[in-house]
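User: Show me an example of a complex going from sequences to structure tokens.

Assistant: Sure. Here are the input components:
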Amino acid sequence: MEKCRVTFHPMGKVIEVNKGENLLNVARKAGINIDAPCGGKGSCGKCRVIIEKGEVTTQPTTELTPEEKAMGYYLACATTVESDLEVKVPIESLVETLKIVDAAEMKKKRHAVLENALEERIRAEGLNISPNVKKVYLELDPPNLDDNISDLERIKRALRGQENIDDVYCTINSMRKLANTLRNNDWKITLTLSNANNNLEIINIEGGNTTDRLYGLAIDIGTTSVAVCLVNLLNGAVIESSSAYNAQVTCGADVISRIIYAGKEEGKNLNQLRKLVVKSINELIVEMVDEVGISPEEISSIVASGNTTMTQLFLATDPQYIRLEPYIPTVTYTPPIKASNFFLKANPEAYVYCSPNVASYVGGDITAGVLASGIWQSETITLFADLGTNGEIVFGNKDWMMTCACSAGPAFEGGEISHGMRAATGAIDHVSIDRTSREPKYTVIGESKPKGICGSGLIDVISEMLLSGIMDRRGKIVRELNIPRIRVDEESGLAEYVLAWAEETETNRDITISEVDLDNFIRAKGAVYSGCQTLIESMGMDFSMVEKVLIAGGIGSHLAIEPSVVIGLLPDIADESFSFIGNSSLTGSYLILLSQEMKAKVEEIAAQMTYVELSVYPGYMDSFVSSLFLPHTDLEAFPRVKNLLGE
Amino acid sequence: MEKCRVTFHPMGKVIEVNKGENLLNVARKAGINIDAPCGGKGSCGKCRVIIEKGEVTTQPTTELTPEEKAMGYYLACATTVESDLEVKVPIESLVETLKIVDAAEMKKKRHAVLENALEERIRAEGLNISPNVKKVYLELDPPNLDDNISDLERIKRALRGQENIDDVYCTINSMRKLANTLRNNDWKITLTLSNANNNLEIINIEGGNTTDRLYGLAIDIGTTSVAVCLVNLLNGAVIESSSAYNAQVTCGADVISRIIYAGKEEGKNLNQLRKLVVKSINELIVEMVDEVGISPEEISSIVASGNTTMTQLFLATDPQYIRLEPYIPTVTYTPPIKASNFFLKANPEAYVYCSPNVASYVGGDITAGVLASGIWQSETITLFADLGTNGEIVFGNKDWMMTCACSAGPAFEGGEISHGMRAATGAIDHVSIDRTSREPKYTVIGESKPKGICGSGLIDVISEMLLSGIMDRRGKIVRELNIPRIRVDEESGLAEYVLAWAEETETNRDITISEVDLDNFIRAKGAVYSGCQTLIESMGMDFSMVEKVLIAGGIGSHLAIEPSVVIGLLPDIADESFSFIGNSSLTGSYLILLSQEMKAKVEEIAAQMTYVELSVYPGYMDSFVSSLFLPHTDLEAFPRVKNLLGE
């Protein structure tokens, strides 16, 4: 097999690969995270690179303009290596692999939310801190010729005497430490006991008295990002928390592209996806434990919540049947599994609990989120929407809960939008447009030049385009305005609005909103709204009966209510009905980690929810089509928008 | 670090190592199994090699004669590599790494013993075949949009309906197979369910109906050899059985040298020993499953019995404290542990059960052996002796059992005997000496020229030397006979008897029995006899009250009663009292594998046995010293020997 040397600039990474390899794969192998929300199908146009030197073959694409092609741009996913190459990776093609930009801010917020969640629970219900692990300090009598039982029998005898514990299983890893830990510590030791699968297990043995140290991890496995909290299991304090991209993003932006990717290469890709998410989590763990000065071995319990696909990729169970009718996941209730099976940086004998799934598109992130939201204990009729890479909705109160998933796609996180990007440095996050001049003003995350536009920015710009008359209620740009910011492509006849000129941007390309983008975004918001409507109507109710709207998920923290109502993403009800509850999946993981009652509760919640499969639900398609207007076909349902539009 | 190339002849293996490395280690790394019963301490003189070319440094030794030194002989364990080397490994220095010679014969015997054991149990007690695993065949309803529970919930529902099984844990490996096994087999599958640690677990999932295939392994982990039986768990049939050297023998012949070896190199050696025994077992497994045409994944349950040190090395728990007063093992009752933790070639989720130990020197091989012997259900007062690399004794009946371990050392298997070797090809196994001419006749295992002498040959030759007057009752050779076969070393004054002249032997060296050998062997037999005596006397009884003597272990199968009585290894009671029960540890493993009652029983046996620590038992030392005569100081206790000696 002929070998080729591929050099990536500006990072200067060099890798030797076989001639004929796919350039996107080559970049992944070199550890360069090129953005490819479509998973390498050639349809998103995000993985653009410039071939500075060398030969490639490439497939035809409409994602690049003739000018771009002339400048040497190629789609990495559609290009194969034919010789030694020099490849330039433009900044906008890179996934930020490091921390999400507003880490400090998010961390503060997350601390607040989690501490609040805990305090509220303790106040409201007298929640006991009762994790599934505990520590026991033992001072043993050293053996002698008359009392010569084995080390393990000696420990069991002491547990019986001191703790009234009759039966305990000793894991092999603890057994291997036993002899020397006992003798090097004058027969004074601390056991970590874990309660799982109907057994009490000795999962660790440490010298001396370490009962003041007991740690766990709460994890949210998002499609786009993972968040991890290091928790003191003795008092519930959040010691550290951190988040990062889920490294799987280089294999596709949404669950469907991940599933397709996982199905290729006979299980190799599935395993690669498993490794990538574990790598993302492990990097956060290592960073946190180093910061705090504990050993990963001290992590004794782990709870992870993710959507059904993320859970299955974490478990490395084949997710194909999530995508195919009748949409069946491998597991809903995942039993606790040892950390060693995941290769997580923690005590290998610690148990990992995955929050239960309800169905293929309503997963553990939602059951954990509902747990955190408190819907299950409240009379208030609540609409809960998790707007992340997917959109999941729960409607109900403590007596009943309906749930569904909307095929919202990745538009809220910038997917399938020409200049869309995630809420990271360089993302335009807020926009206003002058009603007269139609000139925009925007703010950018991280105070840099703009690179693209994120979900909240998109909501703003669409709302503003509607209110300033740049776009009509069908999402069509008003060509007649005849301003330089409105351009029409002669060939396709499609129009676009220029939000930022090339000279203002980091990428030196205009940042625009095209009619294709508008279509995509309107479909996404329409899917969410009609999903909510269908759930509510399935109970014979309407939006006016909704007493509370909880918005969770990545988009939640940047979302403004008014523009969301204007575009018809959120219903037109009183502003004070809305609350943003942040990463409720993480908060749920945290509560389950701290309390065995909460674990029982989240399983009850999963069992209690009635799942509505929208794709086959009568009336849903009509409802969806009616939502493809701004704000909606039925303007009467949006009185304040009607007012703003002056109709 | 300077590198040296070491070439081993006649095998032609070449290895590159650092200058200064120990030559015995180098040979191990090259996969050449040089015999080193002392574990590389320089005291046994077995690891002799010839340096044909190159430079070494070596430590002074008395294990080589000046002539041997002149011929280029070195002890590998005392020699370090200083340059490129050409090393010849004489045949007598090699451990046979392949099968023990009389495999076919042993296999036949083992089948007979095991089948007998089973049939006897079934007859005697109506033993149910009740392994800890079973298979369940399910035909599931395929899912549809109205019945869209997850794959695992579907299986659980079917188990509840069909098998009345309420709760089952699904292992991660089974979970990973679930989706595709169901769909590729038209929703008809077979589960393997394992019962361990209070849980029912799905340890495998196969397509179609495989309920007619369920396999397990019974293993004996001996210090010298490992034996494995592949068992049909549905009917108890022994499908295949095989044995081989425990590859640990290259690190020392007896448990003490293994423990010392394990204690070096900060855990690396311990892990190496674990790997070596697992390698020996895995090689047998692969050979057997290939022969029979099953997949290692179909092995669903495993029972292993070994002495306490072998068990701990198998578990990789530090065995140092077995050797140090007060002689404490890490575990007596080892909980069931997954095969994946051992890297055994079997279903990784299958459980491995290790037979319980009683104390540091009475292990799972003895509890399993006692289970197989039937002592626990018999009124007959029985003496059970397992004469392998160590000597363990049990005395009792169904109401009480005493047990002890004798520091017999490895003499019965040829250890610490100048020309001693194991019962393999080239071993002299039977000897007679003409009473007048004092000329010997011998037989050799495998019809080859003799290379050395094994345990049964040693017993014969010592008995014959006594009866023909070559040696007196103290084990001193009678120099006055003045025959060529008796030689006296001028320097040391020690005598030896030449059993085979160099020209008759495979090694071209005389095979002799020296007074040092006699001393070592007499100490070994004295330890066993006095151990038996002490146990019997501890119950206020004497040898005349022993109704049955069961002899188990490697030596048992070759042992002749009369010469054993003559040298005072066995008591002088009626010949019909003695039975040889072969590898009772393996038979015990087999019974436990087949029956959960037998597993409960072996734990009862371990709890019931009273362990006597001979080293601190009053009167034992006197008893031992009295046994250092042939047959014994007290000739009156051996009437038939008294008669044979004409006294």
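The lines above are the inputs; the final block is the predicted structure for all two components together. The first strand of chain A starts at residue 3 and ends at 9.
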